[in-house]
Structure formats: structure tokens, C-alpha cells
Write a structure and sequence with these properties.
The complex is a heterodimer of chains A (about 80) and B (about 300). Helices cover about 50% and strands about 5% of the residues of chain A. Chain A contains two helices and one strand, in the order ααβ. The N and C termini of chain A lie far apart (about 105 Å). In chain B, β12 and β13 form a beta hairpin. The chains are: A mainly alpha (about 80), B alpha+beta (about 300). At the A-B interface, β1 of A face β6, β7, β8 and β9 of B. β1 of chain A pairs parallel with β7 of chain B.
């Protein structure tokens, strides 16, 4: 009897938990919360077509710094 | 002289660029061997009679003969016949491949070089060429003109004049840390072999990779070895010289090229203020001991 009671209580708690999760999911997806202040730059950077300032680009994407050159000598 | 002239003036005579443009035009009119109306052609036609030259032509020929003395004839302004015999008898843009073979006249052993017979009368500014000599100033004309162009900007100029690769840079440059001069890589002409940092120096490059042509199956180029009176068989591709003047750099770059890898470095080391970097046809890079001071 005790085992049956415990089992029923655990199943009930699980069902209630699932229902609570579903309710939360529904609320979040119908009214997404505004991003927290700390998350705002990251969200903006992710949406921006240009890299955020200070963000290190992959090495392959960085053009080598041009060597200073005012003029050139060559065979003519 | 052909090619383009690049003038950059940071500080100097405000009318400097137009003055330099006029100066190059006047030097071209006096010193071109392709313009039958030029003063140089008149001088060559007058031989062996004395020719009263303008101060400009007299000074240019004097300087050319002086460099022939200094380099013991490795620089020789009297190789025009050999140049024309090799096919360079018109401006380079007009040279087309031809059949047949060029007739080169090898310098006879033991005969005094023609340039030693050029008589310069400094009092009357007359030039007397030996009967069978004609002068070509192509080996010195650009450097000589660049030096006069820089001088026209005044003694406190901060400027650079580059005539198709032969240049002089005076002053501290646009940013105050000198002038940065790329040296063309002969194996990758769009890239630099090195970048030099210079001020108050001339820089010039010589090589056979641009002005060459074929007659029959034989390849010719414009750098005539006066010892052979034919296109040089140098094992060098290019030589770049940093010198005290553009004229010095221009002349020594040609001499170093003609001497080849075995003797060029030692020859340049003899000249105060001159350094060089050379590239052989096998891809080796040679340099004088002081050249690294100019590497940026």
C-alpha cells in the first residue's frame, strides 16, 4: 500500500512538473522577454553584419599590415 | 627617356612639380638619341669636328666621360654602335622581332677605348668626338636628370623624384622617418624583394628583364658590355644600388650588372656611400656589407 501511495504521489508530482514546464515554455514563446542588459551587446554583435569592435577575427581573415612604401625602384 | 616620372614634394618650391616637368622635357630634347633634332644627335653628326655644346649637354657628356674614367671603362658612353648593331636602333617600344643575326663588333684587344679620345674644352664648352665615336647618354640620363630635378627644389627640400625606377629621395619623408623605397623582386615583379629606408640618397635598379628583344633565335638586351661590345652575358638578373646621387646609383647599377656576381659586390664596396643588392639568375641574393643599414 505504501509503495502504491508513494508511486502515485511521484507520478502526480512528475505530471505537475511537466505541466509547469509546458506552461513556462508557452509563456516564453508567446512573449519572449527583452534581453538582459548584460546580454545586449552580444545579441547586437550576433545580429550585426560587421565584426564588433575589439573582437579578434580569425587569423585567416586578417590582412597582413601593408609595409610602408612611398615609391619603388625597378628595372625599366 | 621613356616611362613616367613620379614627383612627391612634402616641402620645397611650390612650383616644383611644373619646374621638374619642364626640366625633364628640356633634357629629353637635348639628350635623346632617337630625336634627330636633338643636340646629342647634332654632336654625333659633327664628329670629328669640335662641337659647341649647350651648358646642359656639355655638363652631361663631361659627367659621362668622368664616370667612364672612374669605372675604368665599365661604364662607356660610346657603345652606341654596338647597341644599334644589336637592334636597339629605335625607341624600345618600336623594336620588333627580326630575322637574321646582329653583327656585333667585338672590341679589338689592346686598342684604347673610344671614350678616352673624347676631347672636352671646358673654356669654350666644345666637345670633340673621334671620327668613329658616337655617344649614348641612356646609361646616365635618367639619374643625371633626377639629380638636377631635386636640386631645383632648393636646399631644404623634402621630396622624392622617381624616373621609371631611378630616384632620389631628399629630406625626412612624408612622416619624418625617411623615404621607404620598395625594391622589385625580379622573380615576382609585382612584389618587393625588400623595402629600403633612405634619405638624401639616390636609388637605381638595372637589369635585362625589361628591355630585351630577339633577332632570329638570339636574345639581346640593352646593357652592352663594352669589353665585348655586345649584350652582356651577366649572370645577374637585377642590381639595385643606393648611392650618394641618383647619377652614381644609375651608373654603378649598370656597372655592377655588367661585372656579374663574381665582381659586382667588390666593385660597389670601393665606392664611399654606395651599397647594392643583386639577384642572380639562379635566385641567389647578394649584398654589400652596408646594405642592411637601409633595410626597413
Amino acid at each position: 500500500m505504501n509503495l502504491k501511495k508513494n508511486l502515485a504521489a511521484k507520478v502526480g508530482a512528475a505530471v505537475a512538473g511537466m505541466a509547469a514546464l509546458l506552461g513556462t515554455w508557452a509563456l516564453v514563446h508567446t512573449n519572449p522577454p527583452p534581453p538582459a542588459a548584460a546580454d545586449a551587446p552580444a545579441a547586437a554583435a550576433a545580429a550585426s553584419p560587421t565584426p564588433a569592435r575589439g573582437k579578434r577575427a580569425p587569423a585567416s581573415a586578417v590582412a597582413p599590415a601593408p609595409r610602408k612604401r612611398h615609391t619603388r625602384t625597378h628595372v625599366s | 627617356m621613356g616611362g613616367t616620372v613620379d614627383v612627391q614634394i612634402v616641402r620645397g618650391d611650390a612650383a616644383g612639380a611644373s619646374t621638374i616637368e619642364a626640366l625633364f622635357a628640356s633634357h629629353e630634347r637635348a639628350m635623346s638619341r632617337f630625336d634627330p633634332e636633338s643636340e646629342l644627335c647634332a654632336l654625333n653628326a659633327a664628329a670629328p669636328a669640335p662641337f659647341r655644346a649647350s651648358p646642359l649637354l656639355f655638363d652631361a657628356v663631361s659627367e659621362a666621360v668622368g664616370w667612364a674614367c672612374i669605372t675604368e671603362g665599365i661604364f662607356d658612353p660610346t657603345v652606341l654602335d654596338a647597341l644599334e648593331a644589336g637592334g636597339y636602333d629605335r625607341s624600345f617600344e618600336q623594336i620588333r622581332p627580326r630575322g637574321g643575326a646582329a653583327v656585333a663588333s667585338r672590341a679589338p684587344a689592346g686598342v684604347t677605348p673610344l671614350w678616352r679620345h673624347i676631347a672636352l674644352d671646358y673654356d669654350h664648352e666644345t666637345i670633340t668626338l673621334p671620327a668613329d665615336a658616337r655617344i649614348d647618354l641612356g646609361g646616365i640620363g635618367k639619374g643625371y636628370t633626377v639629380d638636377r630635378a631635386i636640386a631645383s627644389l632648393g636646399s631644404h627640400a623634402n621630396a622624392m623624384v622617381n624616373a621609371s625606377g631611378d630616384l632620389y629621395a631628399v629630406g625626412d619623408g612624408p612622416d619624418g622617418d625617411g623615404w621607404y623605397v620598395g625594391v622589385q623582386d625580379p622573380f615576382a615583379p609585382d612584389q618587393d624583394l625588400a623595402v629600403l629606408n633612405v634619405n638624401d640618397r639616390g636609388v637605381a635598379t638595372s637589369g635585362s628583364s625589361m628591355r630585351h628583344w630577339n633577332i632570329g633565335d638570339t636574345r639581346y638586351h640593352h646593357l652592352i658590355d663594352p669589353r665585348e661590345r655586345a649584350s652582356s652575358g651577366s649572370d645577374l638578373l637585377t642590381v639595385t644600388v643606393v648611392g650618394l646621387t641618383a647619377t652614381q646609383a644609375d651608373v654603378l647599377a649598370k656597372c655592377a650588372f655588367l661585372l656579374g656576381s663574381a665582381a659586382s659586390i667588390a666593385m660597389i664596396e670601393r665606392f664611399d656611400g654606395a651599397e647594392c643588392i643583386a639577384v642572380t639568375a639562379r635566385g641567389e641574393t647578394l649584398a654589400t656589407s652596408g646594405m642592411t643599414e637601409y633595410f626597413a
